[in-house]
Amino acid sequence: MRVILHVDMDSFFSAVEMREKPELKGKPVVVGGRIPPKAELETGVAGEKRRIRGVVSTCSYEAREFGVHSAMPLSQAYQLCPDAIFLPVNMALYKAASKQVMRILRTFADRFEQVSIDEAYLDISTRVNDWQEARAYAQRIKREIADNAGLSCSIGIAPNKVVAKIASDFEKPDGLTVVESGDAATFLAPLPVKKIPGVGPKTAATLIQMGITTIHELSIRDVQELVARFGKYGWRLHQVAHGIDEREVEGKWERKSLSRETTLDEHTSDPERLNRCIDALAERVHEHLVREGFGFKTVAIKVKFDDFSVYTRAKSFRAVHSDLATISKTARALLKEFIVERADDKQVRLVGVRVSTLGVLDAKQRRFA
Ligand code: TTP
Ligand code: MG
Is the pTM of this model over 0.85? Predict the structure, then answer.
């Protein structure tokens, strides 16, 4: 079962401003720029009228009730809601908040992909057994973000990315929408085509001209007709309308290696005891690998002797491996060669096992890991 989450922060820039200045809570807040004082707007400093420049980056849900929205000229927002609090864009502040949120989200995923300052996909397939568990898992994520970052978000859960993204928007703000396998087409059917990510006003207008307003109407059109009109994108529209999306969560993982080591209570040179240690470490490394859905190409060991000299030995493979036996067998073999190689009577005080050149496994490989 593939379970993908799409997390999107609610009115992100203005929510961060409200977190910093609690007195703004519950008020219409517009982020995009300051409005010059009224006197200057009417008469100006040197008798010349000042103009309101700039566009709305985002605004609080309270301001949205007045019809204000992203990308609207600030002057228009001011006309619609003159009592709103207008704030300049403080990008450094939002970037820091984004980092804080992404750091939390990352820990909840097998694979994690940040797609903008305020949204990310999480593959949680190995972390839950059914859709009910997935819902509870998402509730935990929401709580964690609220408690530790002081922000609210909306989450969509579905068998693929595009449906998860549409679902996260479905009950905004503070939403949680679960679309189970098999329900995607039914969920999408009544929605207007502009809810499909990538369908902007131009594409939507073309579709409406073709008599297509809802995703259901899109789904029953002949795919050839869509391809004739939109090229390759027509094929994609057809797929999405049927709730199909094969794209994987692109886990851009910064980690280059994964290791575990242990300091021995009693220093030893007994190969049997060292092997037992290696096996236990290999198991812990493997457990972590499986949890994160990674494979490796290199296995290495580290040995520290009682005179504090440290040595490492490594072996690399051509293919990506992911099984426990390869880790423990290779690590044991490396240790054996190493002990033979240095036939003196130094005692070992620490051993470590490391895997590196990590690669993301696909779903099938993961099942066999
Ligand atoms: P969005 O997620 O599109 O909007 P949002 O988080 O403000 O509101 P929602 O609850 O509907 O998700 O965009 C994230 C941030 O990106 C937003 O807070 C401000 C910025 N942004 C702009 O600067 N200009 C824009 O036109 C849009 C759409 C967003
Ligand atoms: Mg958002």
Answer: no
